[in-house]
Amino acid sequence: MSTISRLQFLFIAATAILAVVCPANAQTTQAPNTPGPSARLFAAPFYRCARNFYVDATYGNDANAGTQDAPWQNIQTADATVQAGDCVNVQPGTYTAATNITRGGNAPRPRGYVVYRCTQLNACQITASGFATKGFYITGPNGVGPAFVVIDGFELAAGDYNTYGVGVAIGNLNHTTAPGAHHIWVLNNIIHGYGESGIATGMGEFFYFLHNTIYDNARVTCDAQGSGITIWEPSPVPGYNPSGMDLTYIPRFRNVVAFNVTNNNALTQCGTAANPYDTDGNGIIMDTFKNDITGVTYPYQTLVAFNLSYNNGGGGIHVFKSSNITIANNTAFNNQIDPFNNASFRPQIDVANGDNNVIINNIAYGFPAITADDPRCEQTQPCTLTFIGAFAAGKNDTDGTDNNNVWQNNVSFIPGSSNGSENDWSDTDAANNTYTCTANQCSTDPLFVTPSDVSAPADTVYSSGNFALQAESPALGYAQTPRYLPWWTMDAGACDSRFEACP
User: Fold this and answer.
1) What single DSSP character describes residue 6?
2) Rounded Cα gap, residues 116 and 75, in angstroms
3) Which of 60, 122, 55 minimizes the C-alpha distance to 90?
């Protein structure tokens, strides 16, 4: 891997995410980013390789030295050897075994990571499948660590749906207090077919999930219900003092979920019309940042930005018992379509129990059932798909809170609604976080070029639409421009008006 200058790191590789958090006046020649895998980011990554190892499913042998001329056959073999600054270059092909990463790097600097990278964008397909199988499982003994790991440019394609299957599982997913993994970058991947989640974390922090496409997950795990992307109960790294890139490039946010496409994730083999108990199958969920075991709220900032989330069984972006999250410039379309979800109100983007959240510049566009005869209701009575909405907030249990949340410059649209009736607020701190139609645009069609199909049931994998904005869109020029967003931000939603197609 060729080295890159600090300026390139900030303005090229960083455009995909670090541009999100660099000052707005740091203008560059880089164009806005579309959600999904980025050839530009893949070609100019932030990391550098002190040593290179190679894996080839066709010509490799695990008894080899892992050199370019004598590659390993399985990705897992690399884990016994790698150290900070090492890149594991995986040749295109099909890999049938999962990889448990137990060894990472040592510092937040370009040569401080262990990198697993497909040598051709999305041409390395990992098909490992089976009960509780993970494509990549980033965890050490007893769920502790590792840290400073990059996963870049793979297609993780489970062979079939299996309970507890996860594309990229990070840290401890078993509800323990062990210190989790940290400084994990998941970049430019396509992840689909996993029975529980596309990406899921347990404990830990400094997670960066950028430019991935994550679809058709969560279908068969009915107890530990999953979603497309989940950050669950993050926790500060014990004794860790931020340094290097933590301070230079991303000082405001310790976790970033940005420029992803999350679609068609749903719990389609769980609840029934007689027992509609589903709660998840979201595109993106920030889940329980107030730790259920310790009772401590995660104190640091998280950014969810420029994601396109559509046709999911649960919410497009769901914030549950979580605080200190900025949700900016996302597009959420036709979510909450699982008829067996038990929600009585079904928003595209919501905060259910949380404080000090900022929700700005988003587009939320939902399609409720008009009557219980809608085939999407699948004979549920009552059919709660009639309550699909745009935005919602409030506390939904006795120990929940809902204070000091900001909702501004968002665009909501539910066909057939009027005067903001598509938004639902309950038990709110009215002085600070009521959604108003003066601070936001209510009942306003954002005028996508060609949005995706909305007529099929949740168990169908929909084809993508074009969520670019028409020239007459009211979302054009409507965005706030705080300094942590890219300098080119001007429109609401995930798709800049300069795009002809998005994604």
Assistant:
1) H
2) 9
3) 55
Digit-coded pLDDT (tens) for 249-275: 777 899 999 999 999 999 999 999 999
For residue range 73-125, list pLDDT tens digits in order.
999 999 999 999 999 999 999 999 999 999 999 999 999 999 999 999 999 99
CA–CA gap between residue 283 and residue 332 (Å, rounded)? 9
* Whole-angstrom distance, CA of residue 167 vs CA of residue 405: 32
What residue has token string 């084809």? 463
Cβ count within 10 A of residue 356: 17
Region for residue 416 given its phi and psi (left: phi exceeds 0; alpha: psi -120 to 50; beta: otherwise): left
**Is 449 within 8 Å of 466 (Cβ atoms)?**
yes
Q: Which residues of 371-381 are buried (b: 16+ CB within 10 A; e: fewer)?
A: eeebebbbebe
Tokens representing 251 are 């000082």
Structure tokens at 147: 């840290």
Please tell me the distance from the alpha carbon of residue 86 to that of residue 76, in angstroms, as a whole number: 14
Distance from C-alpha of 480 to C-alpha of 422, rounded to nearest angstrom: 22
Residue ranges of the domains in the chain? Answer: 36-463
**For residues 44 and 26, what is the distance between their CA atoms, to the nearest angstrom?**
19
| CA distances (Å), origin 428, targets 155, 355, 438, 493 | 42, 11, 18, 25
pLDDT at 162: 96
Q: Specify whether the CB–CB gap between 120 and 93 falls below 8 A.
A: no
CA distance 208 to 20: 12
Tokens standing for residue 491? 């429109």
Average pLDDT over the chain reads 90
The three-class DSSP label of residue 429 is coil
Secondary structure letter of residue 188 according to DSSP = S
Q: What is the dihedral of CA 379, 384, 385, 387, to 10 degrees?
A: 160
Q: Which two tokens stand for residue 40?
A: 């530009």
Q: Could you tell me which CATH number the domain at 36-463 has?
A: 2.160.20
Question: In whole angstroms, what is the distance from residue 399 CA to residue 496 CA?
Answer: 39
Beta strands in 190-290 (DSSP E): 190-192, 197-202, 205-210, 213-215, 229-232, 255-258, 261-263, 284-287
